Each structure stands twice: as C-alpha cells, then as structure tokens.
Amino acid sequence: MKSIRLAIVMILLFGLGYPALMTGIAQALFPHQANGSIVYSDENKAVGSKLIGQSFQDPRYFHGRISSINYDSAALGLPNYAPSNEEMIQRTEQAAEEWLKKNTGKTKEEIPLDLITNSGSRLDPHISPDAAFFQVPAVAKATGLSEEQLKKLVNKHTEGRMLGIFGELRVNVLKLNMELQKLME
C-alpha cells in the first residue's frame, strides 16, 4: 500500500507538477521561444518557425538545404548515412545535377556542400553565406532584382557565431525570403 501511495505521489509530483512548473517558467521568462519561435508577416500571420527549415520551390526564392524527410518533423530520427553510403551518394549527385540546371555556367565543384547535403536534424533553417551567394544570379534572373541588391540582402541576414566563437556564419532562409518578398512587391 505504501508503494502505491508513493507511486501516485511521484506521478503527481514529477509527471504533472514538474512539467507544469517548467512550462510556467518558460512562458513567463521566454514566451517567444516557448511558443516555437514563430515568425510573423507584416499582416501578423504566422509564416513559420525560425528554427525549422522550409521548402521553397519557387525559383524567385532562396532555397535551403535538401531534406531527406521533406521538412516533416514527425519523421525525425531516421538514419544519417555515411558519405560512403550508395543512397547518400546518389541523392547528393542528383541534388548537384538539379542545382546545375538552375545555375547554368557553374560547375559541380562550385556548389556549396550545404546545398546538396542535409543537416543532421534534416530541418536546419540555415544555409551558409556561400550557399546564399551561390544562388544570387539565379534569384536575380527570376525576380528581376539586381545581384547587388540581393548580395546586400544576404549580407544583412548573415548571422554571426554564437557568443562570437561557436558555430559558423549562417543565413536563415525563411527570414531572407520574407524580406525578398517585400522587395518583389
């Protein structure tokens, strides 16, 4: 009987009480992050999360990393393939060929690696500045905007290293495309 009471107390304390307390603290101190870091348009409409990559198929927009799960977060946990895996090699070759079709005059060696490989999470919302600059000529052609305008836009949206030392320079594709949309209007 004591063990049943102890189990019930632990379930109430750690199964309900602790999660409710942590949720309350998170909502009080970090409401934006606790609610998914949602990005809103000027019309106050939710357009996505700045933490999860999205698929942009329109040639007028910058494209993020490829996703072997089509940006479906429910499919997380699938295996990451080694560089020697045949399926990985074929997918990477196919992605490179698709980029070369969209970016005539470029060679396979010029394609930034992050455009033809997926990230570990398969949902990375960022690309490298090199990957964004690689896309500038194609986006300029599709939108009619100058390459100089687009390069300034990429530079504006290039985020630095965390605390100045951790990680790499990166560009959030959703935020970049939201501002690009404003320039096209």
Automatic annotation (TrEMBL):
Q: Which domain of life does the protein's organism represent?
A: Bacteria
Where located?
A: Cell membrane
Q: What is its main location?
A: membrane
One Pfam entry for this protein is: KdpC
Q: Under the cellular component aspect of Gene Ontology, which terms does the record hold?
A: plasma membrane
- Give the keywords, sorted: ATP-binding, Cell membrane, Ion transport, Membrane, Nucleotide-binding, Potassium, Potassium transport, Transmembrane, Transmembrane helix, Transport
Q: Could you cite one Gene Ontology molecular function of this protein?
A: P-type potassium transmembrane transporter activity
Bilayer topology reads: Single-pass membrane protein
- Function according to Swiss-Prot or TrEMBL: Part of the high-affinity ATP-driven potassium transport (or Kdp) system, which catalyzes the hydrolysis of ATP coupled with the electrogenic transport of potassium into the cytoplasm. This subunit acts as a catalytic chaperone that increases the ATP-binding affinity of the ATP-hydrolyzing subunit KdpB by the formation of a transient KdpB/KdpC/ATP ternary complex.
How it assembles, according to the record, is: The system is composed of three essential subunits: KdpA, KdpB and KdpC.
Query: Which PANTHER family does the annotation name?
Result: POTASSIUM-TRANSPORTING ATPASE C CHAIN (PTHR30042), POTASSIUM-TRANSPORTING ATPASE KDPC SUBUNIT (PTHR30042:SF2)
Similarity comment: Belongs to the KdpC family.
Which HAMAP family does UniProt cross-reference here?
KdpC (MF_00276)
Please report the name of this protein according to its UniProt entry: Potassium-transporting ATPase KdpC subunit
The species this protein belongs to is Parageobacillus toebii NBRC 107807
Lineage summary: Bacteria, Bacillati, Bacillota, Bacilli, Bacillales
